Amino acid sequence: MHQNQKSKEELLKEIEELQRKFNSLELCVKEDGKARMLTEEALRISEERYDLAMEASHDGIFDWNLETNAIYYSPGWKKMLGYEDHELPNDFSVWEKTTLAEDVEKSWKLQQKVISGEVDRFVTEFKMRHKDGHWVDILSRANAVFNKNGKAVRMVGTHTDISLRKKAEIKLRDEKEQIRTILDLFDDPIFVKDDNHRITLANNAFYKIFDLNKKEVIGLTLAESVPENERKAFLEVDRRVLDTGIEDLREEKLTIGGVTKIIITRKTRFIDESGNIFLVGSIHDITEHKLAQEALLKSEDRLNLALETGFIGAFDLNLVDDSTYHTLIHDQIFGYETIVPDWTFETFLSHVFCEDRSYVEKNLHKAIDSFTDLKFECRIKRVDGDLRWISVMAKHKLNFEGEPIYLSGIVQDITEQKLTEIELIKAKESAEENEEKFKVYTQDSPIAIYTTDEKGNCIYVNNKWLEFAGISFEESLGMGWVKSIHPDDKKFVIENWNKSVQLDGDWFFEYRFLTPSGKVTCVEGSAKRMYSKDNKLIGYLGSNVDITDRKKVEFLLIEKNEELKIAKEKAEESDRLKSAFLANMSHEIRTPMNSILGFSELLKEPNLTGAKQQRYVRIIMKSGERMLNIIDDIVDISKIEAGLMVVDIEPVNVNEKIDYIYAFFKPETDRKGIKLVAKKGLSFKEATIRTDNEKLFAIITNLVKNSIKYSEKGVIELGYELVREAEGKVLQFFVKDTGIGILVDRQEAIFERFIQADIVDTMVREGAGLGLAISKSYVEMLGGKIWVESEVGKGSNFYFSLPYDIESPVTGFSSL
Q1: 407 φ/ψ angles, rounded to the nearest 5 degrees
Q2: What is the DSSP secondary structure assignment for residue 6, as one 8-state letter?
Q3: What is the pTM for the complete model shown?
Q4: Other Cβ atoms within 10 Å of 610 Cβ, number
Q5: Strands (DSSP E) along 42-180, which ranges?
Q6: For residues 372 and 379, is the Cβ–Cβ distance under 8 A?
Q7: Cα–Cα distance between 270 and 279 in angstroms, integer?
Q8: What is the pLDDT of residues 342-391, one digit of tens each?
Q9: How far lies 452's CA from each of 432, 435, 457, 473, 509, in Å?
């Protein structure tokens, strides 16, 4: 622009000022005839400056005389539309011939508001036709000029060509939509923040994780979502990423819209072509993982508390690298005050009493080599030289392939119990000579003790046994003791006790006592044979040890292992499905993209014939349609899961819909050699129902597409029939084919999203595996249900039902 060239606003103001002076001079003429010469000179100067302004402006300037209806258009206005100054007349017809019809009416209404004085000026956009035929986007500004009586006598304004700006806006909008479409393909939430820390863009996954809509998210400041005492540090991290461009990865806790999530956030910097700086972040939700982790920690705390309460030591032997884990109590049993860092088999065996060492070593190697449970008792020599008895029990932990990786168990000091048992045996050996002494010795023992005759009938129990059983001494005699056994264990205990007595053997089992008051005690019961001096069986000497605390520990160990196993299986299944779906998506998008790029390159060949050119163009168009269908499906399933899909109920004639779909797919089935049949169950008049037209079309179309895809020959039949159910009348639609069929164990899974990524089958065809999932969601939105009946090798019959919601011919409302 020339240095002395004035802006449009300045020219308009100058024109208005000249008009004002003109009106003022006109009054002067009436009041004083002597001023006529001055007025004429002023008018001449005004007209010269006005003409100069009209000529100099690059924008289109117009001056509309409202009294004569004549319009003057500046040369710049005509050049803007590609005309020379002499090619268009300066009258109203130019405006009507060059302006888009609907824009003429819109502009006329705005002009009337200015002329009437309702508004001071108007600014609007419309389209005008260029000389070469294309449309030009115009920004129009105008205001009215009023005479002394307040009547609008002229309309003056400018027209500016904003085509380039509009194209840039459209390009920017399209690029933004493309970015949004790509972002919505990701399962993890993604967001973009500007330099002021406000969100400018987010994908559907971000809306879904916090149960928000776009209006609630855009403009949100995430710093407000973290605890107040963490906001400063949060903003410092964002500022460091924006200033340095160094990526940041950290765990954060956000509360948005009342929803709290624990997340792993990855943040990085992005600078666009205009130099604007943005922070791009991705979120991985670990809320469930953290909650599960907390639950496991609580479980471990309970386990450790139970172990400490019962003074039971725990250990884990890693069978892969021979490393060990053991608790403090485990080491204290062996006389250590602190945990021994390098505890090995050799360390353990060094404490075992020399006479028991061979027996213990044999049991340990047997358990490790044959993967059997470990259970034995032995004597150990503590660090201080004290000799103690211990009980060791261990089980194998398996990995998810069923291979043993740990030998996990517990160690308990049973010295007092063993000494009691030894003394009992010694006392019983002389019981025939001094039975009273035996009873006195055992009556107040901390171990539950009982004796039987040679047939297994109870003849004596001590006070501890009566405490466990909750019955009287008299009730326990003979087989009366059975009534004290827990109902769930009674059959097992009686059968094994009788078996031991019949085989003249020892007895060892774990079971539960249940007192009349409801107290349950877990015990380890054992009985050994007693012989007279002449080696004749005279009965059994037994004991019951309270193992309730130990069983709780074992239960917690099992519970912990199950929780870990379930969590691991869920994580592995999630990763497997995610990897399979991403691989499938990569293939489905890459295949048509490769076709588009490849055949676009072939179009550049200089000697390409017309036939080849058309063939390449058809392939490019088909690949583009395939990619668009994939993106449409992903967008639809994202809207469904985010709750953004809207149902639009309107009158729909089902017969028309069936006829249209039949005609649409008939050429394709003919090319493939498949017979397509359509059946309608109602007359045209009866076939109008109230439902969502677009969703009904999408459901049937998806089912027909699947039938064509998985059929090589035969017949495809589509249609519907009126069926009466308990809830009322429904239209039952069907699409039947004679294709490859579906395995029985896959017939429910096919309606789940992304299921093609989970099918390991050579017959899987192209597609994202979303069509049936979308169809199922649509059917349920419309109040119906969908199912399939199929047999491999014979075909598939897909059915879905919709309410027979009849459109009333009088009011338009449902008559049912």
Answers
A1: -115, 105
A2: P
A3: 0.34
A4: 7
A5: 60-65, 71-73, 121-129, 135-146, 152-161
A6: no
A7: 6
A8: 777 788 888 889 888 888 888 888 887 877 888 889 999 998 999 999 88
A9: 14, 13, 5, 14, 17
